[in-house]
Specification:
Elements lengths: L1 E6 L7 H15 L3 E6 L8 E2 L2 E2 L11 E4 L14 E4 L4 H10 L8 H9 L5 E6 L5 H7 L6 E3 L23 E4 L10 H13 L5 E4 L10 H11 L7 E4 L6 H7 L2 E3 L7 H8 L3 E3 L10 H4 L23 H13 L13 H16 L2 H15 L2 H19 L14 E5 L5 E5 L3
Helix pairs in contact: 1-13, 2-3, 5-11
């Protein structure tokens, strides 16, 4: 089986690209023939560390395409089944188009709906964010094409061990999202200042991912005006643009602050590097060592176990996706707070800091172990391979992974322990 991933190349500037790159490398490590093609420049090979992109010639022998940004013509309609990776948040795509907030991206939601209504070309839609699955179900009009795969990152890069920056404050607070409407840190910056004023006067906040200063960017100009003319100036110590080495900041920070409503890459990267997280939707304060050893979730008890009532056709893979999401919900990180009330955000920061300050190094190790269990890109790769195999079975093709000897087919199957190893047999 050959899988061609189509995306744009944006090293250290796009979470979508980083996920596509890490997924491609992890699938190769499992024995899958896969490559990444620059959808904007398919004639050119590019290098990014240990990944070299392929040219459009690689697509000629592909059994499947994975659409990350887009698949250009003529490949979009050359008859190859396409799996759409749903990297964006459904509400943000809707909001962006409705209110025209991004000049170069005027119709992202319409494009999504065009994909959902293309029942000939698009075989599957895959989300890596469990809270979004049911929304994607609705947008797919209950056709049963949506799937969920575990949400991983490269745990070899994001680890508590390694070089770190020296951030200001005690505790050291961090904002690391790129400045966009769906991730605007206004609420958590207010909470950080209230926390400084009423809990820990030495607390300081470092902001990373801001547009460059002096370039006429309205977002940066307004943030500079806010920080210089309000009480927020007392807590914000440092602010930077987009950086290529965020892991160095995560390793020195105590608490990441964000408003993203799901487990974004920034959350996962920070946790894997040993940093706690406070957000309106996801908070790590209740994560304990005892929890790591507990069994989590029973797919048989899923609240969505009767999806077949509205599913046409009834699809085992789709039911399994919802069961996996149900298991994901059992993690004690899903704690909601009202971000409009800065005092409540400050209280959550204080609660998290109280847990962390007792044993900062032990806390870092606990969070890294949580990430090892939940955010391993190898599990994402294995989950995606299962989806590829499902699609190819429908087309009547035999998915071959690796380089088999005569009379033998090597496939990759996920093991109970979360690893995936090759074994002889048929998918």
């Amino acid at each position: 089986m050959r899988v061609a991933h189509w995306t744009f190349i944006a090293a250290n500037r796009s979470g979508m690209y980083e996920t596509a790159k890490e997924l491609c490398l992890a699938q190769r490590a499992l024995g899958l023939d896969c490559g990444l093609i620059d959808a904007f420049d398919p004639k050119t090979q590019q290098c990014d560390g240990d990944l070299k992109t392929e040219t459009y010639h690689y697509a000629d022998g592909a059994d499947l395409y994975v659409l990350h940004s887009h698949v250009p013509e003529p490949w979009m309609h050359d008859g190859t089944p396409i799996i759409v990776m749903l990297h964006g948040m459904p509400h943000y795509s809707w909001e962006t188009e409705l209110y025209m907030q991004e000049g170069g991206n005027q119709s992202p939601f319409s494009q999504l709906m065009a994909y959902f209504n293309d029942i000939e070309t698009i075989a599957r839609f895959v989300t890596l964010w469990s809270p979004q699955l049911t929304t994607w179900d609705i947008l797919d009009d209950y056709r049963g094409r949506t799937r969920f795969a575990p949400n991983g990152i490269d745990l070899g890069r994001y680890t508590p061990d390694g070089p770190k920056k020296s951030l200001a404050g005690n505790p050291k607070l961090l904002v690391a999202d790129q400045a966009r409407m769906c991730k605007d840190p206004f609420f958590v910056v207010m909470g950080a200042e209230w926390f400084r004023a009423h809990h820990e006067p030495e607390a300081r906040l470092t902001m990373v991912g801001m547009p460059p200063i002096g370039g006429g960017n309205r977002v940066r100009e307004r943030w500079e005006h806010l920080l210089e003319n309000s009480g927020c100036k007392r807590v914000v110590a440092q602010r930077y643009g987009i950086l290529p080495d965020l892991e160095k900041h995560y390793r020195d920070a105590d608490i990441l602050l964000s408003v993203t409503p799901d487990e974004s890459r920034v959350y996962k990267e920070a946790i894997a590097c040993g940093c706690d997280v406070v957000s309106p939707y996801l908070n790590t304060a209740q994560l304990t060592e005892e929890w790591l050893d507990l069994p989590h979730g029973d797919p048989a008890q899923s609240r969505d176990s009767e999806l077949g009532r509205y599913m046409l056709p009834r699809a085992a893979g789709h039911l399994g996706a919802h069961a996996l999401v149900e298991r994901e919900r059992t993690t004690p990180i899903w704690e909601t707070i009202n971000p409009v009330d800065a005092a409540l955000v400050a209280d959550q920061i204080a609660k998290t800091w109280e847990v962390r300050r007792r044993d900062p190094e032990g806390r870092r190790r606990l969070l890294a172990e949580f990430a090892r269990k939940r955010y391993d890109m190898r599990e994402t790769a294995a989950g995606m391979i299962d989806i590829y195999a499902e699609v190819l079975r429908e087309t009547g093709k035999l998915p071959i992974i690796g380089h088999p000897s005569p009379g033998e087919v090597h496939t990759v199957v996920p093991l109970m322990g979360g690893r995936a190893e090759p074994q002889a047999g048929l998918v």
